[in-house]
C-alpha cells in the first residue's frame, strides 16, 4: 500500500479512441503510442507514474510541473493520432484498414468537420489525485486493469503496462 503523499499535481487520465475502436491490438500501433509517450516525458516535462495501454484506450497517472497536463496530452494525442492513422493506412497487413479508416472518417464528419479523420475522443477529463488514499486506489486500478478485464491472470504479464518488468515507458519514481 502506498503511504507517502502522492506526487505533486498528479492526475488520473484516460484517453479513448473514437468509437472505442480496438486499435491497440497491433504491436506496431502500440509502439507508436509508447514512443510518443516517451517523447513527451523527454521533451515536454511529463511525469508518468503508472500506465496501462488497453485495446481502445490508455490510462495513465501523470503530472507535469511546467505545463498543464491537458496541454501536454493534447499535443500527445495530436502527434499519436497522425502517426497511428498513417501507419494504419500504409500497413499492407492490416485486415481492418478500410473499416477503421471509414469509422475515423465518420467520427470526423460527425464531430470535427475540419479534419479527414478523428482518432481520439474529445477531452481528457483529468481527475486530481490529491490524497494518499485516492492515489493508491487509482494506482491499484491501473495496475490491475488487465486482470479485471480478463486479458491476463497477473498484472506483471501484460506487456503494455507499468506493471510489466520489461515495459518501455520512462516512468517517474514515486515510491
Q: What is the number of beta strands?
A: 4
The CATH C-level class name: Alpha Beta
> How would you characterize the largest beta sheet?
4 strands, antiparallel
Pattern of helices and strands: EHEEHHEH
Count up the domains: 1
What is the tally of helical segments? Answer: 4
% residues in beta strands = 5-15%
Helix and strand composition category: alpha+beta
CATH topology name:
Alpha-Beta Plaits
Tell me, rounded to a whole number, the average pLDDT: 91
The assigned CATH architecture is 2-Layer Sandwich
In angstroms, what is the radius of gyration?
A: 16 Å
Q: In what order do the strands lie side by side in the largest sheet?
A: 2-3-1-4
Shape: globular
Helical percentage: 40-55%
**End-to-end gap:** 10 Å
GO biological process, one term: DNA transposition
Organism: Niastella populi
Protein name: Transposase IS200-like domain-containing protein
GO molecular function, one term: DNA binding
Account of the protein in words:
This protein is of the alpha+beta class and 175 residues long. The protein has a single domain (10-157), classed as Transposase IS200-like (Alpha-Beta Plaits). It has four helices and four strands, in the order E-H-E-E-H-H-E-H. It has helices at residues 27-43, 69-90, 97-112, 132-148; strands at residues 11-16, 47-54, 57-63, 127-128. Helix 1 runs antiparallel to helix 2 (69-90). The model has no long low-confidence stretch (mean pLDDT 91).
Amino acid at each position: 500500500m502506498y503511504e507517502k503523499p502522492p506526487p505533486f499535481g498528479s492526475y488520473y487520465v484516460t484517453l479513448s479512441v473514437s468509437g472505442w475502436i480496438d486499435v491497440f491490438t497491433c504491436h506496431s500501433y502500440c509502439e507508436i503510442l509508447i514512443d510518443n509517450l516517451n517523447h513527451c516525458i523527454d521533451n515536454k516535462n511529463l511525469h508518468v507514474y503508472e500506465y496501462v495501454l488497453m485495446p481502445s484506450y490508455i490510462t495513465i497517472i501523470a503530472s507535469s510541473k511546467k505545463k498543464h497536463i491537458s496541454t501536454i496530452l493534447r499535443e500527445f494525442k495530436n502527434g499519436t493520432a497522425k502517426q497511428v492513422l498513417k501507419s494504419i493506412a500504409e500497413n499492407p497487413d492490416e485486415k481492418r484498414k478500410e473499416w477503421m479508416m471509414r469509422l475515423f472518417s465518420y467520427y470526423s464528419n460527425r464531430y470535427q468537420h475540419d479534419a479527414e479523420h478523428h482518432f481520439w475522443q474529445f477531452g481528457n477529463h483529468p481527475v486530481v489525485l490529491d490524497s494518499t488514499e485516492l492515489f493508491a486506489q487509482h494506482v491499484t486500478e491501473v495496475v490491475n486493469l488487465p486482470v479485471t478485464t480478463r486479458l491476463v491472470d497477473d498484472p506483471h504479464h501484460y506487456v503494455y503496462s507499468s506493471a510489466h518488468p520489461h515495459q518501455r515507458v520512462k516512468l517517474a519514481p514515486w515510491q
